[in-house]
């Protein structure tokens, strides 16, 4: 009501924090529906800085890399080592909307148990947010000894709170 504003003495009564408008609900819904794709893109972008990254999350992609149809991981990363040798990482990618738990299937867990130090669990937490965080665990079968989920013997539920203290961290927030 501009006609009620009059010149005179100004009295300070409070601070105000002005935030940007919340995301469009349609954009947020799209991001939530595409958590797995967002997590895969983030991991592939991160790993590409270290060497050759090959997605193997579908039977066709896995076969193209000489693997079985369901290899138990999503990304094969062949990193350049400082000694000239290639380091092979078999990376299972999980994405979450917040700080939820992640679920590994029996096939993924079995591969983690067989591949041990070559197997990595990469969790992209808060995937639907503007600042997703990458959490990396080498050899999750040994590092995160967990019980099967009570609802199913074919899955293992792992809380992010259990992962964080054991994760490798190089700054956390993913960019781009």
If strands are numbered along the chain, what order do they take across the biggest sheet? 1-2-3-5-6
Task: Give average pLDDT, whole number.
Answer: 82
Assembly level = single chain
The best one-word shape is: elongated
Let me know the largest β-sheet.
Answer: 5 strands, mixed
Description of the molecule:
This protein has 176 residues and is α+β, with helices and mostly antiparallel strands. It is built from 6 helices and 7 strands, in the order H-H-E-H-E-E-E-H-E-E-H-E-H. It has a 5-stranded mixed beta sheet, with helices on both faces. Strands 4-7 form a two-stranded antiparallel ribbon.
List keywords for this structure.
elongated; five-stranded mixed β-sheet; alpha+beta; 7 strands; two-stranded antiparallel sheet
């Amino acid at each position: 009501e501009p006609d009620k504003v009059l010149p005179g003495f100004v009295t300070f009564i409070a601070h105000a924090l002005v935030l940007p408008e919340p995301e469009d609900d349609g954009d947020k819904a799209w991001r939530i529906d595409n958590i797995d794709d967002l997590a895969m893109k983030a991991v592939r972008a991160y790993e590409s800085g270290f060497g050759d990254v090959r997605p193997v999350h579908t039977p066709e992609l896995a076969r193209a890399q000489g693997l079985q149809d369901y290899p138990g991981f999503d990304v094969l990363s062949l990193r350049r080592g400082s000694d000239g040798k290639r380091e092979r990482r078999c990376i299972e990618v999980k994405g979450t909307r917040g700080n939820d738990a992640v679920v590994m299937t029996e096939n993924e867990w079995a591969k983690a148990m067989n591949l041990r130090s070559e197997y990595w669990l990469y969790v992209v937490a808060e995937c639907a947010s503007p600042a997703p965080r990458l959490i990396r665990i080498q050899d999750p079968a040994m590092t995160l000894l967990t019980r099967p989920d009570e609802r199913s013997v074919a899955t293992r539920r792992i809380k992010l709170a259990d992962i964080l203290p054991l994760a490798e961290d190089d700054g956390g927030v993913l960019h781009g």
